[in-house]
Amino acid sequence: MAPLLEEEEKYVRLALLLKGVTPRAVRTYFDRLFPPSYLPSTLNTNYNTLDDLKFKRVLNQTQWNLLFPKNGLPVSTTFDVTLMICLIRNLTSVSQPINGLTNYHYKERASPGADLARIKWYRNILAHPEEMPTVDFNTAWSNISAVSDSLVSVILI
Fold this sequence. Notes:
Blueprint: H1 6-33, H2 39-45, H3 47-55, H4 61-67, H5 81-91, H6 112-127, H7 134-156
């Protein structure tokens, strides 16, 4: 088997960080905001808000089925990062970055809202891969590594 090209290796490393480490950091933060034992009642209490998000196509049917399963109770371990960030954004008072959760905030200081925006930003870049110069990869790696550490440290405080 031929060795990976430098660009392929950078993509794989970033993918492992974004798909392996950051979901655990986001889930840990999510479970702090939405304790698992209260998650079903929290979702039921916010049913109208969530229904509106479904109507606006912010939530899709698959996500809806995870929030309100026909059998059993919802559990965060079945939620992906996109769904958890959507719930945090719409059901909590976590301060959002100046430009919202959908834009990149490399200069904004670490905060849960800014950290979540960075994760979304880099996940979108990963979903639409282009060549990534080494300097951009190093910046992405540094930012996402710091985000994971930052979210976990917020939880531990």
